[in-house]
Design brief:
The protein has 81 residues and is α+β, with helices and mostly antiparallel strands. It is built from 4 helices and 3 strands; from the N terminus they run βααββαα.
């Protein structure tokens, strides 16, 4: 793994990453993308790929889009098992 890659990212740092987004909004976005953080001890983490998807959703919303439109654009379906 190169030094620029992220293996896992702490969920508790997502609020600060997205400009002070409230905790409930972070968890709503995780839910919208069907991301289930993995617990390691007392902390929860998402993968680098999941972080990239969250970053893309954040940018999309900042430009005036919605989570539903993002999921449709990306072909993501939360109802898939």
């Amino acid at each position: 793994m190169s030094s620029g890659e992220i293996d896992r990212f702490p969920v508790n740092q997502l609020q600060a990453r997205y400009g002070g987004l409230v905790r409930s909004a972070v968890y709503k976005r995780l839910e919208e993308l069907n991301i289930k953080p993995q617990r390691v001890g007392r902390n929860s983490f998402i993968t680098g790929a999941e972080l990239q998807l969250m970053d893309e959703l954040h940018e999309f919303i900042q430009r005036g889009g919605s989570a539903a439109a993002f999921k449709e654009m990306r072909g993501l379906n939360q109802d898939q098992a």
